[in-house]
Specification:
disordered N terminus; two-stranded antiparallel ribbon; disordered C terminus
């Protein structure tokens, strides 16, 4: 079990790794660990910055539509007018994976609607139109995305396209935890990624209703503050979330999950595991860090 606290390493097992090293789990599951079936996973306490569970956390892997969180951030950073109407262009049609979209070429939407549809329904034409209408065009948008990744301290992250359709868009679970934290500072991203549906009125008066690609946001047993799914063949099924478990915010990263429902099952298994740990102070003390109860109490009091 690896635990990362404040940029350093703390170890709850019998031996301690060298300072600055990284522990990657991936062999047989240790007793007491959650039964996570995604190939890459990370669970981090968002308040304390402590990683409570990690499986191949430094492995660099394709991230599919998780990319759209970064696309949305740089568009919002550029302060592009949210009420500006943007037309879907033939250049926005996916000729790489041939994914479908309900947004026809020529449809005009406000930029805010494009952001919501790209984030909530993971629509690739919406994300492409956002990048194409970025100041300087798609190339400038990609440059801004890679620059922001560097600024956020995401050394394993590279973006080749703004939608996530390219298998060249790669990152690690460690980097994506930083991405989720950064994206959580944008109210529109939080709202768009956690809404169950969003209606869009096109310029011809037609109304299209888009639904969230993460069915957990409609599950009343979850309290999700930010969410994004992703899928291409190279990446498998992916999911990143910020969610409250036992009234504490945690970041969950799941990559390279191949079963249709495995990433959702992993999220539910992680939540159950966390609830068990947090309801048992002795267990939390053993599995997190020696002063975990004191640090948690300090965090709750605002210290």
């Amino acid at each position: 079990m690896m635990v990362v606290a404040d940029g350093g390493l703390a170890w709850a097992g019998p031996s301690r790794p060298a300072a600055g090293s990284t522990m990657t789990t991936g062999g047989p599951r240790s007793p007491g660990d959650p039964d996570v079936r995604s190939n890459v996973a990370l669970v981090m306490d968002a308040t304390l910055g402590i990683t409570l569970y990690a499986k191949h956390p430094a492995q660099v892997a394709p991230i599919a539509s998780i990319t759209k969180l970064m696309t949305a951030m740089v568009v919002l950073d550029a302060q592009c007018p949210l009420n500006e109407a943007i037309a879907i262009d033939r250049a926005d049609v996916d000729t790489l994976k041939h994914s479908r979209s309900r947004l026809a070429v020529g449809a005009r939407l406000e930029r805010e609607d494009l952001l919501r549809v790209a984030l909530m329904a993971s629509d690739n034409r919406a994300a492409s139109a956002l990048a194409r209408s970025y100041p300087g065009g798609t190339a400038a948008c990609l440059e801004a995305m890679n620059r922001k990744a560097r600024d956020l301290g995401m050394p394993s992250t590279r973006f080749k396209d703004p939608t996530g359709l390219s298998g060249g868009n790669v990152s690690s679970a460690q980097d994506l935890a930083r991405l989720v934290q950064a994206a959580g500072a944008y109210p529109l991203i939080r709202e768009a990624t956690t809404s169950s549906f969003h209606p869009v009125t096109l310029s011809d008066g037609r109304v299209l209703e888009f639904h969230n690609s993460n069915r957990l946001v409609s599950n009343k047993s979850w309290n999700i503050g930010l969410s994004k799914t992703g899928y291409i063949n190279e990446a498998g099924r992916c999911l990143v979330m910020q969610a409250e478990i036992a009234a504490r915010p945690f970041i969950i990263v799941l990559l390279d999950s191949w079963g249709k429902y495995t990433r959702l099952g992993d999220a539910n298994r992680i939540r159950k595991w966390m609830e068990q740990i947090l309801s048992n102070p002795g267990t939390a003390n053993d599995r997190i860090i020696p002063d975990a109860p004191a640090r948690v109490a300090g965090a709750r009091s605002g210290n």
